[in-house]
Amino acid sequence: MNQSYKINFFNFSISILTFFILPLSIPTLISFTNNLTISYALIFSLQALIIITINYKMIEVHFKRFLKNKENIIFILFGIVLFTSVLLLNMNLIKGYLPSIDFFTLKRFFLFSPFIVISFTIFFPISYCVTYKILTDKIEIANIEILIIFLTSLVFGALVSLTYVPFSLDGFLRSFLFYSFISGVLSYLYNQTNSLTTSYISFAIVLLIKEIIIHFI
Q1: Residue 105: how many CB atoms within 10 A of its CB?
Q2: What CA–CA distance (Å, rounded) separates 108 from 105?
Q3: pLDDT value at 215 more than 90
């Protein structure tokens, strides 16, 4: 069974542009939707459609790797603990910007609420994890794993903060720290399991639990 894949220049360029450029259109999109949650849901959905479509082979390979190792279930649980810890740290101390669902939007657009929830809790983490992997795919870890995880997490955290966070110096610095932690957890899980699937499943579960707790408990 072929377990290889190749990230070509087209996949790399389109994925990076899709993930980092589309969010810049949020202010323009809001002028049409008059709703921040709907605007983010549309962006996250379009991102996922493009990124998953052009990187389907890579995602499939990582999913097969995940299925071959039963220990990955343990790493999903570990990932849930790590991502939850980062989110709690962010909510109580860092206070970086993380797009969240507005409860009144869910009530107002009740029929579309599943689409909104899926966009925020599944589409976003998949796009995040796949883009991170694409950006760092050619980096050789060798004997400097911790240093590489640290540096790539900082770079990706900075890029996400520049494009996803409403501009302010304080907001950027706080979000930079938050997304660097998120990227660090993602990178650690990947290096332990050799599969992106572990990362985006655990990240998605934590985001879903967060929204449920905030809006329904």
Answers
A1: 17
A2: 5
A3: no
Written as one string, the DSSP assignment of 117-145 is HHIIIIIHHHHHHHHHHHHHTT---TT-H
150-188 b/e with 16+ CB inside 10 Å = b?
A: eebbbebbbbbbeebbeeeeeebebbbbbbbbbbbbbbb
Q: How far is CA 147 from CA 49, 83, 153, 166, in A?
A: 33, 20, 10, 30
Q: Check residue 167 and report its DSSP letter.
A: S
Cβ neighbour number for residue 111 with a 10 Å cutoff: 6
Q: For the beta carbon of residue 93, count every other beta carbon within 10 angstroms.
A: 11
CA 188, CA 145: separation in Å to the nearest integer?
A: 9
Looking up tokens 């493009």 gives: 50
Residue 43 is encoded by which pair of tokens?
A: 């962006």
What is the rounded average pLDDT for all residues in the chain?
Answer: 92
Give tens-digit pLDDT for 89-139.
999 999 999 999 999 999 999 999 999 999 999 999 999 999 999 988 766
Going by C-alpha positions, the residue among 88, 83, 113 that lies closest to residue 101 is 113
The predicted model scores a pTM of 0.92
